[in-house]
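Worked example 2:
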Amino acid sequence: MGFNWHAACETHWNKMSAHWQANSEEMWETGSRKTILPVLTRYIQPDKGRVLDAGCGDGYGSAKLAELGFQVTGLDISEEMIKKAETRIKPGLALSFVKADLRKLPFPEHSFQAIMAINVLEWTDDPREMLTELKRYLQPGGLLALGILGPTAAPREHGYRRLYGEDVVINTMMPWECGRLLTENGYEIVHQEGVYKRGVTLEMTEALSLELCQALSFLWMFYARPVNARQTTK
């Protein structure tokens, strides 16, 4: 029997769920993900439709966005992650969670004004196909907030054993590769920025080219829209 990428991915994240939950608050409040929602909410509005948090993990980011007044659906392949995420549902929050595979999204096309996919694309067996699929679920003018691991991110080590011929469940890529993949497959990048390890200052990065900033990053964020579907309202 051949290697089942997505079954192995589900097993991996089930095992990682407790560790993830122990660190999610720090990531979203003061760590690598603290700037994502402030940037995302420059481009979206609560009354313009739902937001999909694809690969929501324990749901911390989903709940944080819902607390800002957005209708949020969190999705994850891991049953253990979804169980933890569902504990964040509270009265008054337009927040729901579903266990599903990104390859088979259980929604009608054009369901979301935005899709947030942070450290998700690398965990699929065909990142290019995944980008094409996500476009189908964005409303016209919708936004994809896509984050990938930068070159200095320790979780890239999950792909190391491929060098020994072992099966792994991560398709790490460089930020420049992801940027090219977006633009070659029907997206326009409207904003991009990096997150860096402690010790890297704003003054340091301001003096560097985009290429060098990407090379130094822990996480690289792309905010992109499908071409020919740009936002027309001001």
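The two ends are 54 Å apart (CA to CA). The chain has a mean pLDDT of 93.
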